[in-house]
User: Fold Abasic site processing protein from Brachybacterium nesterenkovii.
Amino acid sequence: MTGMCGRFAFYQEIDPLLDDLGAVDLTDPHMRARFNVPPTAPIVVVTESLDRDSGEVLRAARTARWGLLPPFAKDLSFSARTFNARRETLREKPSFRGSLGRYRAIVPMDGYYEWRRDSRGRRSKQPFLVARRDGAPLLMAALVSWWRLDGTDASRVPPSVPLPGTSEDGRWLLTATIITREATGTLADLHDRAPVMLDREHVDAWLSTDMDDAAAAQAWILDDDHLLDPTLLEMRPVDPAVGDVRQQGPELIAPIGPAIPVTA
Assistant:
């Protein structure tokens, strides 16, 4: 549970991503390009699961609430504290260890926003968009959890209007957290944490249902060899208006100064 990676943009057409990952589209058809996504908002996740009836593996893009709800969460407000998870302590944290062995995912995005901090840890007014220089999407390591909406607690009564990410029967809500690591290189100038960005060639292993042991998954995610080469990234200064979650236009991603190359 950290304060970083709390805002991102995802605006590209989803079909090329689905083709690249070999996933079917089970997302909410009403979801559109968004340039300022905050925690607890609906996001796109890519998961892989084993169908109990057919025994076949299904890889799918789905809609989830950003902020993981473990089975013991009493209400939706819990998700405001679990939108990030430290990779170093995934097996130790009750909120995340139940998902580590079976419910891993990818959160695709075009870039995430971060504000540079001074030596005292205070956030400046200047945000940066961290994105790939070639425009390809970032693939963030994540965990998901299905949270029962119709549990015995009164706060779990399904709403009259289904939440994005709700199962077809209205009983379950898919929720997600983005995994973070200690920042290095240029990214450490922005924040002491950074999201775990996976290289495309390692995504299949992270999603695979064959890795069903939490200890193995913990060791895997701690291996930096699976990370995207940071020199493929750049930091672009953007409009401070991104700090207001009500602002959603494409002008938010327009650079207002020269991009800064990212170093390892």
